[in-house]
Amino acid sequence: xxxxxxxxxxxxxxxxxxxxxQVIIQHWVRILHIKLGWIHDFDKIVVNYASTVFIxxxxxxxxxxxxxxxxxxxxxxxxxxxxxxNDQFICSGSSDNTVRVWDLQNNKQTQLFNGHxxxxxxxxxxxxxxxxxxxxxxxxxxxDTTIRFWDFKDNKQLQIFNGHTGWIGGIEFSPFNGGRYLxxxxxxxTICLWDIETSKSLHALKGHEGCVRCVDISPLQxxxxxxxxxxxxxxxxxxxxxxxxxxxxxxxxxxxxxxKQYIVFKGHEDGVMRNIGCANTILSGSNDKSVRLWDIRSxxxxxxxxxxxxxVFA
Length: 314
Fold this sequence. Notes:
Order of helices and strands: HEEEEEEEEEHEEEEEEEEEEEEEEE
Organism: Reticulomyxa filosa
Protein name: WD-40 repeat protein
Structural class: mainly beta
Keywords: Repeat, WD repeat
InterPro entries: WD40/YVTN_repeat-like_dom_sf, WD40_PAC1, WD40_repeat_CS, WD40_repeat_dom_sf, WD40_rpt
WD repeats: 69-112, 113-160, 161-204, 238-264, 282-304
Strand order of the largest sheet: 1-2-3-4
C-alpha cells in the first residue's frame, strides 16, 4: 500500500495580472465547455491551494477573494462543486485522508468523512444518486486503493469499491445513463469501469506501462469506429470513449463498450497528469511542463503549448 501519492509538486506558482487571468479563463471556458469548479454562470471560480479552498470573483471589475474554507491539515488534491436541492456545496479531498463538505450559503464546513486510510486524490458529486435516490452523495478515490461513496446528508458511507491494487489517481462519471458508470485510473496500471447500481467492476482495461494518473469520458469521433458507431451498446455508452493519461508518458483512447484500445498518443516526455477529451480533440498536461492538443480523427498531435516552468497538473 502506498504511503502517499508520490508525484512531483510545483515549487512556485507565478502570479498573473488580473487581465491576463480573465482572458485565459474566458478562452478555456469557450473552447472546453468547463463546468467543474465554476459557480453561477462563471462569475466565480473555486481554487484549491495547499490545505485551503478559496473562492474568487473571476469577472468582477475588481477581482477579489470572496471566501476561504480552512480546515484541511494537509494538501488539498481535489475539489468539486454542485447544486443539490437549491443548496450550493463544495467537496474537497486531501492528503490528510479526509473528505470534507462545505456549504456556500452558510460559509462553513458541514461534514467530514475520515474513512480513508490514506490520501484522498479525487472527489466528485454523484448525480446518479441524487437523481435516482434523492441522496446527496460524494464519490472519493484514495491512495488506500479504494473508491468510496458518502451520503453527506445522512452522514454515512454507502458503498466501497475494492479492486485496484495501487493508489487511484482519477475518477470520472459517465455522461450517459445519468452517471450510472464510473471509470477509475490507478497506480496498478489499469483502468476499471464500475456499475454504481450493482457495485460491481465490469472491466479492467490493461495496456498502460505505468501508473494511470487521469481518466476522462467523452463522445467518440475517431475514424476507427465506423463499423461500431451504429451498434447499440450494452451499457448505453455507444459513441463514448475513455481517455487515459499515464506515467508511461502516453495518452490512450478506449471504446467504453468493447474496451478495445483505439489510439495511443506519444509525444510527452514525462508523465501525463491531466487529460480532457472533447469530441475530436484531447488536451493534456504533463510533468514535462507542456500542454498538448491531440486530434482523435487524424491520430496526430496538433499543438504544443510551452511556458510553464514546472509540472502541469490541471
